[in-house]
C-alpha cells in the first residue's frame, strides 16, 4: 500500500525511534529532578532537542516552549493572549476562513466569551490578501492568526508581509506553521513581525503528541507574555506546566536535526514526486480532473485534485487497498472541507476532491501505481 497522506501524519524515522527508545527505557529520569545522573541526563536530552529545533528555525533556544502538539500551541497562543490582554479592552481578533480547526474552533470559543472575530476571505487557493488584513485591523485589534502553509492545499501565505502589517500597527501576530516545518525553510530572524509560531513533530517524521509554540522575545529579552493554559510545576518558564514528555521531545529534536541536514534534498524530492504524479494524472485523466491546488507559492509535496463526477469518499474507499490518501484534514474528516468551500468550490465539487501528500522518503517509482488505476 502506497501511503500518500503525509499531511495527516508521517511515520517516525528509525533514527528517531532509536533515540526515543533510550528515554522510554533506561533513561527514564524526570528532567526537573536534581543532583542525580538520571535527572541530569534527561535534562540535557531536552536541552539538545531544544537546540536542534532552534537550529532548524533559526530562533534562540529560550523562545521554544514545548507543548503536546500544534493544537495545544494554537490554543496556547490564542486563548493565552486573549486572556492576558483582556484588561486592555482589546477584544478583536482576526483570522482567516481557511485555517485549521485548531484555530477556527478556538476563535469560535473566544467569540462565545465576548471577543469579536473577523474571518477573512481567502483567494481560490486559500491565501489571505494582505490588503484585506490591512483593512480589517482597527484600534481594538489584539491578535491576528493566519496560517503559513495550508494543510489541504499546501498554499503558502506571505507571512512576512502579513506580520509586518501587524507589527506596524502594534498588533500581535500568530502563525500556524505546522505543515511548513521541515518542508520549507523557516527563518525566525527574518520574520520579526511574527510573535508566535506553532509547530508539531509528527508532520516531519517525529512522534505524535509533541510540538512547540515559539514565542518572540521583546526588546528587553522577555518572552511576549500570555496566560498559560496549564498551571502546575512551572516547567517551560511557567508557560507550560507538566512533566516533560522526554522521549517525545527527544524524538522531535532528532526529527528536526534530520530535517535540517536534508532540507534542500527533501524539497527537491518532494517537487519531483509531485511533478510526476501531476504528469501521470493529467495524462491518464485529462479533462476528467482539475487541480484545486496552485503550483506556485505552495509547499512541495501536497496536491489537491478534483475528480469530476466522482465521489471522493467512494473513490478513496476503492483506492484504499493500494493507495492511502484523504479528502482533506484528518482532524475534520467527518465534514466537507471548510477550506475548499472558502476557496469558492461548490459543495458538490468539494465532495469530488482528494489530497495526495508526499514525504521526501516516498519512492519515485512507487508513483507508477497510478498508471494502473
Ligand atoms: N494545524 C495544522 C495546519 C495541521 O495540519 C494540524 C495537524 N492536522 C494541526 C494544526 C494540529 O496539530 P497536532 O496534531 O500536532 O495537534
TrEMBL record:
UniProt keyword Kinase, yes or no: no
UniProt catalytic activity: (sulfur carrier)-H + L-cysteine = (sulfur carrier)-SH + L-alanine
Matching Pfam families: Aminotran_5
Alphabetical UniProt keywords: Iron, Iron-sulfur, Metal-binding, Pyridoxal phosphate, Transferase
Record-annotated Aminotransferase class V domain positions: 3-370
Record-annotated membrane-spanning stretches: none
A Gene Ontology molecular function term of the record: metal ion binding
Necessary cofactors: pyridoxal 5'-phosphate
SUPFAM superfamilies (alphabetical): PLP-dependent transferases (SSF53383)
Family: Belongs to the class-V pyridoxal-phosphate-dependent aminotransferase family. NifS/IscS subfamily.
PANTHER family with a match to the protein in the record: CYSTEINE DESULFURASE, CYSTEINE DESULFURYLASE FAMILY MEMBER
Name the record gives this protein: Cysteine desulfurase IscS
Species name: Halobacillus faecis
Gene: iscS
Amino acid at each position: 500500500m502506497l501511503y500518500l497522506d503525509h499531511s495527516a501524519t508521517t511515520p517516525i524515522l528509525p533514527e528517531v525511534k532509536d533515540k526515543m527508545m533510550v528515554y522510554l527505557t533506561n533513561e527514564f529520569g524526570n528532567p526537573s529532578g536534581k543532583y542525580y545522573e538520571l535527572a541530569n541526563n534527561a535534562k540535557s536530552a531536552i536541552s539538545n532537542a531544544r537546540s536542534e529545533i532552534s537550529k532548524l528555525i533559526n530562533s534562540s533556544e529560550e523562545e521554544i516552549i514545548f507543548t503536546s502538539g500544534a493544537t495545544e500551541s494554537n490554543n496556547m497562543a490564542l486563548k493565552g493572549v486573549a486572556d492576558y490582554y483582556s484588561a486592555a479592552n482589546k477584544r478583536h481578533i482576526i483570522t482567516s476562513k481557511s485555517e485549521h480547526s485548531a484555530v477556527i474552533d478556538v476563535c469560535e470559543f473566544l467569540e462565545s466569551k465576548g471577543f469579536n472575530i473577523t474571518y477573512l476571505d481567502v483567494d481560490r487557493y486559500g491565501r489571505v490578501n494582505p490588503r484585506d488584513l490591512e483593512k480589517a485591523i482597527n484600534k481594538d485589534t489584539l491578535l491576528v492568526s493566519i496560517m503559513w502553509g495550508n494543510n489541504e492545499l499546501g498554499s503558502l501565505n506571505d507571512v512576512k508581509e502579513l506580520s509586518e502589517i501587524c507589527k506596524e500597527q502594534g498588533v500581535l501576530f500568530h502563525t500556524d506553521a505546522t505543515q511548513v516545518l521541515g518542508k520549507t525553510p523557516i527563518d525566525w530572524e527574518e520574520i520579526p513581525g511574527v510573535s508566535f509560531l506553532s509547530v508539531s513533530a509528527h508532520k516531519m517524521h517525529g512522534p505524535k503528541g509533541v510540538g512547540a509554540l515559539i514565542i518572540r522575545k521583546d526588546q528587553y529579552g522577555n518572552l511576549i507574555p500570555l496566560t498559560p493554559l496549564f498551571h502546575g510545576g512551572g516547567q517551560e518558564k511557567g508557560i507550560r506546566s507538566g512533566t516533560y514528555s522526554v522521549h517525545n521531545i527527544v524524538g522531535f529534536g532528532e526529527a528536526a536535526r534530520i530535517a535540517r541536514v536534508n532540507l534542500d534534498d527533501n524539497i527537491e524530492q518532494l517537487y519531483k514526486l509531485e511533478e510526476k504524479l501531476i504528469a501521470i494524472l493529467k495524462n491518464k485523466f485529462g479533462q476528467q480532473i482539475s487541480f484545486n491546488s496552485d503550483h506556485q507559492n505552495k509547499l512541495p509535496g501536497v496536491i489537491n485534485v478534483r475528480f469530476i463526477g466522482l465521489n471522493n469518499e467512494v473513490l478513496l474507499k476503492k483506492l484504499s487497498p493500494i493507495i492511502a490518501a484523504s479528502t482533506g484534514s484528518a482532524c475534520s474528516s467527518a465534514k466537507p472541507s471548510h477550506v475548499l468551500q472558502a476557496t469558492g468550490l461548490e459543495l458538490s465539487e468539494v465532495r469530488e476532491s482528494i489530497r495526495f501528500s508526499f514525504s521526501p522518503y516516498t519512492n519515485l517509482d512507487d508513483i507508477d501505481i497510478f498508471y494502473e488505476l
